[in-house]
Amino acid sequence: MSGAGALLVAGTTSDAGKSVLTAGICRWLSRQGVKVAPFKAQNMSLNSMVTADGAEIGRAQYMQAQAARTEPKAIMNPVLLKPGSDRRSQVVLLGRPIAEVDALEYGAHKERLRAVVAESLAELRAEYDVVICEGAGSPAEINLRAGDLANMGLARAADLPVIVVGDIDRGGVFASLFGTVALLEPADQALVAGFVINKFRGAAELLAPGLDQLQALTGRPTLGVLPWRLGLYLDSEDTLALDAPRPDARAPYGDQTLRIAVVRFPRISNFTDLDALACEPGVVVRYAASPGDLADADLVVLPGTRATVADLAWLRETGMADEITRRAAEERPVLGICGGFQMLARRIDDDVESATGGAEGLGLLPASVFFADDKTLGRPNGRGYGEPVTAYEIHHGIVDVEGGEPFLDGCRLGAVYGTVWHGAMENDGFRRGFLADIARRAGRDFTPAPDVSFAALREQTLDALGDLVEEHLDTGALWRLIENGAPAGLPVVPPGGAPETSLGTTTDK
């Protein structure tokens, strides 16, 4: 391929399938011998990962780099926003936090961020044959268009052809695709070259008339229809993915099934930690929002959170804190990861994340926590259950362990475990040792499978995404867009509603 090509994958909504389609295109191109990289200019997500050189990026971009078979880098996700409340987010720029802002304060950073986004994309395009960009949310969020960094603002600045993916499983996909284009100004529409429909299940012949009519209305083809595949929610950015159906355990739900309940905090982060547990045959992982959801669990997990003190208050308000305390007293297993570990401590002093001064923890582990101004980002390693463990850490909270038995970097007291290490369960030997320990403590007749490789299963899923692209998209049309950009002369789609001559007038007298 001559020169550097690029393509932007936009979506009608959040969780429409942008991340997995981007990953699938990256894997498909990598198979063709193309040196390809993913890119997301601005990402709002609480699922993040640490690169080899200690930079924090969106977990989805890390996964997409794996799909592309290239080393993840901070420039693949130059701007990461991590919400801490409904109004404020931490701004992470090129892998390092630079500010805590609300929506209005964020505007003051836009020009600086826009320059970094442009430089990052230019650097990737110079290094790689192809860059597959992922949009954010929807490009038709017209209230945000003026300051847009990740959708049509990026496409216009970098002259990127755009394909728009819509999730037919939600319903209303034709209206969503048509409306997305129609709401864009003409110069933005000129870059939208086609559509992809995601999560289709049904009779293709019933869908075909709609595809023909969509092309007649917009002048743009549908480049493919991706069939429904359960279990392709790799490293999602959105908690919306937690509501999607997930595969049942691959063993009967009975005495040999290990039941794990994960507390679904309002600001839950890095819930990808639990994917490795869910990959085990005979393990059921579900998300819990009330005390009753914890009742029959063999293990309760308090995962990471971007709002430790606020989510601890929520845990108490829901009554789940009392249930967790009772479990600990009965020697029933509880695991805290990062923010969840911090909640299990005796005291949390926080003038950084919540600026509340802190709170009393649940007191189930002999530890205390204080929040440092500087964020800890790292890729630690150690041992557990006699097995090597590699992990990653992302936190302001510093845990001072004051007793108990060692558990990774944290501690264990009775059946309560705590660590700030994310990703530990992805280590197969450690995961099997931990699950065997939990099964023994829970009195469950469960033995982990000896041959499950989390890394191999991830590769299989990435290959499955590549297969979907190769088998169900018009890859020739994708190549042409990547090499040549959006076709000239794409028609302008007028917005629906009143005729143009009467727009902005009134008939009231």
Give a structural overview.
The chain is α/β, with parallel strands linked by helices and 509 residues long. The protein folds into 2 domains: 5-234 and 459-484, P-loop containing nucleotide triphosphate hydrolases (Rossmann fold, 3-Layer(aba) Sandwich); 257-445, Rossmann fold. Helices cover 31% and strands 26% of the residues. It is built from 15 helices and 27 strands. Strands 15-13-16-18-27-26-25 form a 7-stranded mixed β-sheet. Strands 2-9-1-10-11-12 form a 6-stranded parallel β-sheet, with helices on both faces. α1 packs parallel to α2, α1 (18-31) packs across α14 (454-472) and α6 packs parallel to α8. The N and C termini lie far apart (63 Å). Mean pLDDT is 91; it is low at 248-253 and 497-509. It comes from Actinomadura barringtoniae. The active site is at 338 (nucleophile), 422.
Keywords:
single chain; 509 residues; Rossmann fold; 7-stranded mixed sheet; 6-stranded parallel sheet; Class_I_gatase-like
Output the strand order for the largest sheet.
15-13-16-18-27-26-25
Helix content: 25-40%
Number of discrete domains? 2
Radius of gyration: 24 Å
Q: Could you say which structural class the secondary elements and strand pairing correspond to?
A: alpha/beta
Low-confidence stretches: 248-253, 497-509
Please identify the top-level CATH class of the largest domain.
Alpha Beta
Cα(first) to Cα(last) distance is 63 Å
Shape-level CATH architecture of the largest domain: 3-Layer(aba) Sandwich
Average residue-wise pLDDT: 91
